[in-house]
């Protein structure tokens, strides 16, 4: 018996799914579906739904850290009774991984994703023919040597590791080359599908160039000591990007910023436990809404200069002024 | 290596020839079509959740489908199957309850320490073995990092592939592979050799 079989057979057993629970869940879903149908021609329910899902996604987004806010100048107004008073300071988003120049034909411009300790550029298959494995390129930058059990080799005169996967079922082929590109910067370049060839991957590595671009959803102010713990790129329409910061001393404390296509009408009705009172606020001269969910968090929405909007979620022990200060650092 | 796909429970509708992806696309125009995706996957999603968070699964399974329905416009069929997307949403919800999950494993391990009395010596030996294994397993799962546990349990319970887990968690396939390798090694390190063979590999 291997570990997987053992977990399935001797790990925690599933609890029974009763007919009542199943029926209740289905009824909840149908109520949601019917509400959507009813509001289809009324107020812009898409924005409201999208906001809710973005908030949920932000709350659940996977964690990890890389960049820490460490340049403090400002002082808090009122300390929290349960946490150290947050002090807001300047914060710099990390630069993006080196980019492939030129972008290989057949893949998209890169999207970005970050989790603890690494930041990746993802060049997705632009064609994605049905029935064929997608051909994707990942460029993952990290500040520590990535794990792995590939073969030792060299690249650009430096020690490197090449790792190959040739899996039959489900079919998946990939080749990864990892090396310390510059002191403290480790790169893992993975080609899958038609890029899953060591010669191809080495050629791609040769086209990497540094960039000073940074993640698209920027937060220029953050509580001292907090760290970037996740970033997820926007969808094609520009909505759904999420940047999350976390207090490493108390990982339950997080700040999330997410993009939306526009402001949510009746914001106080859309937030958790609504309807709640929405306070009109000015964020960099633009009109937004602020809602307090007592004991949990502040929710703020405001326009971005490009016509989209963003939503900010901040723990409840920050002051109202600090929430607006954080919002004014979003771009 | 052959890795069977998890077979979603099918309750009545719809005809199996309609793919999940087509159903989801139809639901953008006819939202009611999404209920069929619920019918196909609610039992397996609940099963996965309940192994991780116990009775909380009753609420989280419902929430998984509400979130999926609300977010269905953001589903990109070129990135992976609906099934992987659903388990990704469910896994995100589990993360909110990481402490409940760890408590559950530890309780499961403690319960394994309480043996029932019996007069049958063979039965006693079998139970001692099974209980000891359960206890070790529970400790091993509780000790994993959340990210390693997510990958291990998506592989083990719904039996998603590397590529599907990559979609579910929005991480590169290579990361899936390394996390699975790491999680498996940690579990193996915590289990007595007598339980393990190498008949299957990830």
Name a few traits of the molecule:
heterodimer; A: 331 residues; alpha+beta; Protein Transport Mog1p, Chain A; 14-stranded antiparallel β-sheet; 3-stranded antiparallel β-sheet; globular; B: 202 residues; mainly alpha; Rna Polymerase Sigma Factor, Chain: A; 9 helices; disordered N terminus; disordered C terminus
Tell me the domain tally of chain A: 2
Q: Could you say which structural class the secondary elements and strand pairing of chain B correspond to?
A: mainly alpha
Largest sheet of chain A, in brief, is: 14 strands, antiparallel
Instruction: Estimate the strand proportion of chain B.
Output: under 5%
Taking pLDDT < 50 over at least 5 consecutive residues as the criterion, the unreliable ranges of chain B are: 1-16, 112-128, 198-202
What is the CATH class designation of the domain at 14-96 in chain B? Mainly Alpha
Q: What is the percent of helical residues of chain A?
A: 10-25%
Summarize the helix and strand pattern of chain A as letters. HHHEEEEEEEEEEHEEEEEHEEEEH
Biggest sheet strand line-up of chain A: 7-8-9-10-6-5-4-13-14-15-19-18-17-16
| Fraction in beta strands of chain A | 25-35%
What would you call the shape of chain A? globular
Uncertain segments of chain A of ≥5 residues (pLDDT<50)? 38-67, 70-82
The gyration radius over C-alpha positions of chain B equals 19 Å
Label the overall shape of chain B.
globular
